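Task: complex structure prediction.
Instruction: return structure tokens for all chains below.
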Amino acid sequence: MSMTTQIPSLTIGAVAKRVGVAIDTIRYYEREGLLPEPERRASGYRSYDEGAVRQLRFIRRAKDLGFTLEEIRDLLALSADRHRGVKAVKKRAQERLAAIDERIAELTRVRNGLEQLVEACPGHGSPEQCPILRALVDEEPQA
Amino acid sequence: MSMTTQIPSLTIGAVAKRVGVAIDTIRYYEREGLLPEPERRASGYRSYDEGAVRQLRFIRRAKDLGFTLEEIRDLLALSADRHRGVKAVKKRAQERLAAIDERIAELTRVRNGLEQLVEACPGHGSPEQCPILRALVDEEPQA
DNA sequence: CTAGACCTTTGATCCAGGTCTAGAGTCAAG
DNA sequence: CTTGACTCTAGACCTGGATCAAAGGTCTAG
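Output:
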């Protein structure tokens, strides 16, 4: 080996800053098994490398895609399984995609219902004439 | 008045069944100020009328439209304000609509990003070749 | 009368995903 | 050396929207 190549180690604060996440969150992820337990300095300080930074970014991206921490734990395990993992990862991503589509469809239904009400509401007059209030109070939503 | 017209009063359980909501939820809404404190029988049992049923349905519908309980409390107050309330109710509904649109747009963005990844993933091979894993690990999402 | 359903209250618990605290130790700059 | 910023731990607390438990009182059908 070459002479003790100084792989620069990062404190938890440095990692937090780099990734844009709170220190507490990093420790929380570690507790929850999303991040491996890092090396420690003699003082007990956690010591991270670039791999940890990458993994943390992975977690944040996956979260932005709507994966739960539970699912992310799962993805991480899969991504570690060379070759066999890829298939499962794709499957998870497809499931996530389907779930998002469903959520969008649901929101769209609500949205359109609400839009109709807003359009039909004159914005003045008695509450009995307000279709928004009527829709909320009366029997069936669209019946 | 006519001779003590028996307005049939409902127990909390009957109301719960009629609206399709848990008893605990009704008491919770009462505590949270979404439902007025009902009459009580001599025994202390809550005694509801049809108005309460209507108001509870209002709450559930509004919740289905994505209003938070906080916002619903607000809507209820507004709907009680005859005439002046209507304008404010419409405004709230418009705001809600805009918020939903924003949420849909956001989800759609995520959805499309995820779809591209899924389509580009062969479903086998090494993790380094899997665009899903690469996207999660690598630098910029779309860069 | 009694079983069993229903009701009362206060207060605890749940879920995810963190966030904050206290009290103590460590590190880098001046 | 001192200061101030940083980190450590264990564990409590937060949000929203309920949901449940415990311990007791009430109501109704048979």
